[in-house]
TrEMBL record:
<feature type="signal peptide">
    <location>
        <begin position="1"/>
        <end position="19"/>
    </location>
</feature>
<feature type="transmembrane region" description="Helical">
    <location>
        <begin position="316"/>
        <end position="335"/>
    </location>
</feature>
<feature type="transmembrane region" description="Helical">
    <location>
        <begin position="101"/>
        <end position="134"/>
    </location>
</feature>
<feature type="transmembrane region" description="Helical">
    <location>
        <begin position="191"/>
        <end position="215"/>
    </location>
</feature>
<keyword id="KW-1133">Transmembrane helix</keyword>
<keyword id="KW-0732">Signal</keyword>
<feature type="transmembrane region" description="Helical">
    <location>
        <begin position="61"/>
        <end position="89"/>
    </location>
</feature>
<keyword id="KW-0472">Membrane</keyword>
<feature type="transmembrane region" description="Helical">
    <location>
        <begin position="347"/>
        <end position="364"/>
    </location>
</feature>
<keyword id="KW-0812">Transmembrane</keyword>
<protein>
    <recommendedName>
        <fullName>Glycosyltransferase RgtA/B/C/D-like domain-containing protein</fullName>
    </recommendedName>
</protein>
<feature type="transmembrane region" description="Helical">
    <location>
        <begin position="370"/>
        <end position="388"/>
    </location>
</feature>
<feature type="transmembrane region" description="Helical">
    <location>
        <begin position="258"/>
        <end position="275"/>
    </location>
</feature>
<feature type="transmembrane region" description="Helical">
    <location>
        <begin position="154"/>
        <end position="179"/>
    </location>
</feature>
Length: 420
């Protein structure tokens, strides 16, 4: 019942936000032009006639299939609902059932989905792919069945072909899988994990090699801007992540020093670390070490109330989130993109599901029940108020004209990457 309500809430907010039309930035202009040239000439091109290279190719291909801004709107709405459904399923696997019930509503009221859904950006589909990847990975770790491993690998290959940030996420996933499972795996399991990670990152690495070396595109990077920029970016992400749970006004970002917001970011990730509990590792990916080890192709057995796969996937979510934020914040030292609060919310939008899951997983169980219920109620109420406020602001943005798909002429917007 709550899942159906959450889907209706998300669809309602998304429909209202985009009822006036989708908006765009300079990124959108390049996406739309590349999609148009793919339909007309079979090539992804930039407006200057050069090969498309600045971002991965999957999103323009999807835009070409959508064929119109109405189709893009349908694509974004479907991706957001699909992401919500998958994270809701993951919540039932990774969280106690009472907290899992609230996850869909918290995600439906999340403002990152509204922001990226309004603009012709690649994040909506990226969010869906990440949710699908984590779901397939969990099923593979539980069952060690080959079809789930193949599915996780296929979706993992698509991640960096949709967004370069997919490589950052996969780096965090790889770190968590190797550190969290290596000593528990049989030789076959180790090779499978390494092969999975290698194949997932291969497509993204090949695309980046093509863009940098084959096309020989001019570098979009500049000399480093110093540690002050890194501190400022860390502060942006600390503010954005905290605002997902607390009703903070926008003025709060400039009201406190960067060092304090950066400390908030570190404190949040420290508090969200999924603390280990003892388990007994069994299954096809693990070396049977106990007399009651299950036969091959079975799930990791739950021990002490927490299964091996559940704990491991929580660690994967944490490591992927930390890695993405760390690398994107570091990237702002060398590039113009991803700097500022608006860009931080855009780039971090894919972390809404993982962060909310980690918050609910770390929720203190020994606190008085009335306190927990009250805090969750305030969280939901604050999220609802902010979602309505953000939806109204996004609804008022000047939309792209329907004819802008073939020859986009964009309004300048105060969000997203800066105009070139």
């Amino acid at each position: 019942m709550l899942l159906a309500v959450a889907v209706l809430v998300q669809l309602g907010l998304f429909s209202y936000t985009t009822a006036s039309g989708l908006a765009g930035t300079s990124d959108s202009r390049l996406y739309l032009y590349a999609a148009q040239t793919l339909r007309e000439a079979g090539h992804l091109l930039h407006p200057d006639g050069s090969p498309y290279r600045y971002w991965p190719p999957l999103y323009p291909v999807l835009l070409a299939a959508a064929d119109s801004l109405a189709g893009v709107r349908l694509l974004h709405g479907s991706a957001l609902v699909g992401s919500l459904l998958l994270w809701s399923w993951l919540g039932r696997q990774l969280l106690p059932w009472r907290r899992a019930l609230l996850l869909p509503l918290l995600l439906a009221l999340g403002t990152p989905g509204l922001l990226v859904g309004k603009f012709v950006w690649a994040e909506c589909v990226f969010m869906l792919l990440v949710a699908a990847y984590v779901s397939a990975l969990l099923q593979w770790l539980r069952s060690a069945r080959g079809e789930w491993g193949v599915l996780a690998t296929v979706v993992g290959v698509l991640l960096p072909l949709q967004r370069t940030l997919g490589l950052f996420l996969l780096a965090g996933v790889g770190l968590a899988l190797v550190v969290g499972t290596w000593r528990h795996l049989a030789v076959r399991g180790r090779w499978l994990v390494l092969l999975h990670l290698l194949l997932c990152g291969l497509g993204g690495v090949l695309w980046q090699t093509y863009a940098l070396l084959v096309v020989a595109a001019p570098s979009r990077y500049h000399p480093p801007r110093g540690w002050a920029q890194l501190l400022s970016s860390a502060a942006d992400y600390g503010f954005v992540l905290l605002r997902w749970g607390l009703p903070l006004p926008a003025a709060a970002r400039v009201g406190l020093p960067n060092a304090l917001w950066a400390a908030v970011l570190l404190g949040l990730f420290a508090a969200l670390w999924p603390r280990r509990r003892p388990w007994r590792q069994v299954g096809a990916l693990a070396a049977p070490a106990t007399p009651d080890a299950e036969p091959a192709n079975t799930a990791f057995r739950a021990t002490h109330g927490l299964s091996f796969s559940t704990q491991l996937v929580r660690e994967v979510l944490w490591a992927a989130s930390v890695t993405l934020v760390s690398l994107v914040a570091a990237l702002t030292v060398f590039a113009q993109s991803a700097a500022g609060v608006h860009d931080a919310e855009r780039y971090a939008s894919v972390l809404l599901g993982p962060v909310v899951v980690l918050v609910l997983a770390a929720w203190p169980t020994r606190a008085p029940r009335w306190l927990g219920v009250g805090l969750l109620g305030l969280w939901l109420a604050g999220s609802a108020v902010r979602a309505v406020h953000v939806a109204r602001d996004l609804h008022r943005l000047p939309p792209l004209a329907p004819a802008s798909f073939p020859r986009p002429v964009l309004h300048r917007q105060p969000v997203g990457a800066e105009e070139e």
